[in-house]
Amino acid sequence: MIEVNNLSKWFGPKQAVNQVSFAVQQGEVLGFLGPNGAGKSTTMRMITGFLPPSSGSVKVCGFDIVTHPIPAKAKIGYLPEAAPSYADMTVLAFLNFSAELRGLSGTAKKNAVRHAVELTFLDSVLGQDIETLSKGYKHRTCLAQSLIHDPEVLILDEPTDGLDPNQKHEVRQLIKRMGETKTIIFSTHILEEVEAVCDRAIIIDRGNIVANGTPAELKASAELAGSVLISLRKQDGADANAIAQKLAARPGVLRSEIILADGARLVLRALPDRKLQGSLSGPLAEWAVGEHLGLEDIRVEEGRLDDVFRALTVTDAASQQAKKQAHDDALIQQANQSQATQGARA
Amino acid sequence: MSAWSGVKTIAKRELAAYFDAPIAYVFIVIFLLLAGFFTFTFGAFFERGEASLVSFFSWHPWLYLFLVPAVGMRLWAEERRLGTMELLMTMPIAPWQAIVGKFLASWIFIGIALLLTFPVVITVNWLGNPDNGVIIAGYIGSLFMAGAYLAIASMTSALSRNQVVSFVLAVMICLALIMVGFNPVTSLMARWASPNFIEAIAAFSVMTHFDGVVKGVLEFKDVVYFASVIGFGLFTTGVIIRSQRA
Predict the structure, then answer these.
(1) Which of A77, B45, B174, B223 has the fewest CB atoms below 10 angstroms from its CB?
(2) Residue A64, class by beta-carbon neighbours within 10 Å (0-12 exposed, 13-18 middle, 19+ buried)?
(3) Would you say residue A308 lies in a domain?
(4) A86 contacts chain B (CB < 8 A)
(5) Coil, strand or helix: which one is A23?
(6) Residue A329 in contact with partner chain B when CB distance is under 8 A
(7) pTM assigned to the model
(8) Which residue of A has its CA nearest to B82?
(9) What is the 3-state secondary structure (H, E, C) of chain B?
(10) Which CATH number goes with the domain that contains A11?
């Protein structure tokens, strides 16, 4: 449906997109992730035919966007980043105009406009000038425009930007529903959105694709994914360092870390040796019980998309260290909270 | 979708945008007031003692100099300011359809303003027996000249997202097109330039080509001149729009 081959874009001496290649099939929702200025919008603008590529090619439903722009553009519904629209038109006039440019007329136009309005909940503002609308409504007006001709391909640049949580939820549901039959690319920097909606995600940084996979695959590549967090009740005479060393010596454990050691408890993390397969949590739980270490809690960390995203898009080592510290602090806080609630219950 | 229906859709929206804003009515009123003022005072309509609209038409190159760029300045600058350029250029229409559609809308708008000067035709017919063929030729020629100015305004409008900048640029270019054939200027140039050179330069002037129109002679070469300025302006608009996307 969409084939992108070695797509590059230079703005003068600055390269915005570098040799990007990927394909999206029908019925697939592709999430486009990346920090600001990574080249997400530029790539989308090239796919929709707004910007000509410096090199490489884009095919939409078999039509090359450069050599056959009109049939290719007819297949695409596009929501640009800033969700632009004509401020002096009413919502209805704007949607009618978009439908006419898409070659719709008469009853077909009427039905198309009505359907798009229903999908985006615009009934109440149809007669209003667009400039008098709130940001959320303006955004949805432009979204309605992209859906009006029931396109096979949808390119949505930050479709949930500027919406309130309810509207965000609605738009995500809409994308998910439409993703069953259409080909969708959408960009976002909200990572939970990717997990909720996408079949596949691409992370782009400084014009390069740095990751391409399902959200589950990406999460599995997180540094801490699969590591085991063990909480032990503090026992008299127990030496935290000694326990940590013992833990590191267990089969399948690459190394261990002490996350928290205070008067009441000891929290350790065991990082798995990725070369070995199999679950780590079961054997470690048995070990902890067998050694009478006072096992309180044991759980496997899933790996978080945030971590993958940061690891891939932040190259500065110091700032990575800071991120990891923040992650651990959050864990400690969480542990303290659960301890507090347990105490309260007792 | 046929090529024409794309042009029509664009033109329809653009024309509606003109009349949606109060500025359209302000423009028409100013145009009519100034046209009347120039005709009856500076143009000495009555003192001439002849039944013609020479005093009406001969001011049009100057009248249009400010009013037409004011109409054309929003054509593309507004699209760029609103960011709707990105929508328009990703619609399944060719850029030329948008360029022509927008140009036609603004041309029709000027045409409507021009038609509303009909009382001057009634007046001159009531006072005497003018040659109405000459008057119709004058109107057609005037409309063509407005089109030429508009195509230039379309071009400068594509250059900047700031409407004021595009207005000033259009006025400057149109003024240059007037000046190179304006008698006081050409006679000044005659002191140092050869007559052939002056004639060659003056051939590019709207004045040279509008002179005949005022006198009621709408020659084919004048129509070709205005049509080629329109063609050049719109073609350049396309080039500018394309270069901005690259």
Answers:
(1) B223
(2) middle
(3) no
(4) yes
(5) strand
(6) no
(7) 0.82
(8) A84
(9) CCHHHHHHHHHHHHHHHHHHCCHHHHHHHHHHHHHHHHHHHHCCCCCCCCCCCHHHHCCHHHHHHHHHHHHHCHHHHHHHHHCCHHHHCCCCCCHHHHHHHHHHHHHHHHHHHHHCCHHHHHHHHHHCCCCHHHHHHHHHHHHHHHHHHHHHHHHHHHHCCCHHHHHHHHHHHHHHHHHCCCHHHHHHHCCCCCHHHHHHHHCCCHHHHHHHHHCCCCCHHHHHHHHHHHHHHHHHHHHHHHHHHC
(10) 3.40.50.300
Facing A97 at nearest CB: one of B5, B9, B83: B9
Determine contact: A93 vs chain B, CB below 8 A: yes
pLDDT, one tens digit per residue, over A288-311 is: 888 777 888 888 877 677 777 777
Which B-chain residues 53-92 have CB contacts (< 8 A) with chain A? 82-84, 86-87, 89-92
pLDDT surpassing 90 at residue B3 = no
Pick B91's closest partner by Cβ from A52, A73, A89.
A73
Q: Which domain holds residue A72?
A: 2-216
As a whole number of angstroms, the distance between CA A98 and CA A274 comes to 53
Is residue B21 less than 8 Å (CB to CB) from chain A?
yes
Q: Which residues of B touch A50 (CB under 8 A)?
A: 86, 89-90, 245
User: Which amino acid is present at A297?
Assistant: D
The number of domains in chain A is: 2
Residue of B nearest to A73 (CA): B92
pLDDT at residue B22 tops 90: no
- pLDDT at position A215, please? 80
Q: How many Å apart are CA A294 and CA A265, to the nearest integer?
A: 9
Average pLDDT over residues B88-109: 95
Cα–chain-centroid distance for residue B36?
Answer: 18
Between A69, A71, A85, which is nearest B84 by CB? A85
Q: In chain B, which residues have their Cβ closer than 8 Å to the Cβ of A93?
A: 13, 16
With beta carbons less than 8 A apart as the criterion, state whether B132 and B41 touch.
Answer: no
CATH number, residue A259: 3.30.70
Q: Which among A174, A194, A216 is the end of a domain?
A: A216
CB atoms B86 and A87 under 8 Å = no
CA B88, B90, B93, B99 torsion: positive or negative? Answer: positive
List the structure tokens of B93.
């229409």
Compute the nearest-CA separation of B179 from chain A (Å).
38
How close B85 gets to chain A, by Cα (Å)?
A: 9
- ipTM for the predicted complex: 0.89
Is residue A346 very low, low, confident or very high in pLDDT (cuts 50, 70, 90)? very low
- Whether residues A161 and A126 share a domain: the answer is yes
**In this structure, are A80 and A174 located in the same domain?**
yes
Q: Which of A78, A82, A88 sits opposite B90 (nearest CB)?
A: A78
Interface A-B, measured as beta-carbon pairs within 8 A, has a size of 71
Is residue A232 domain-shared with residue A101, that is, in the same domain?
no
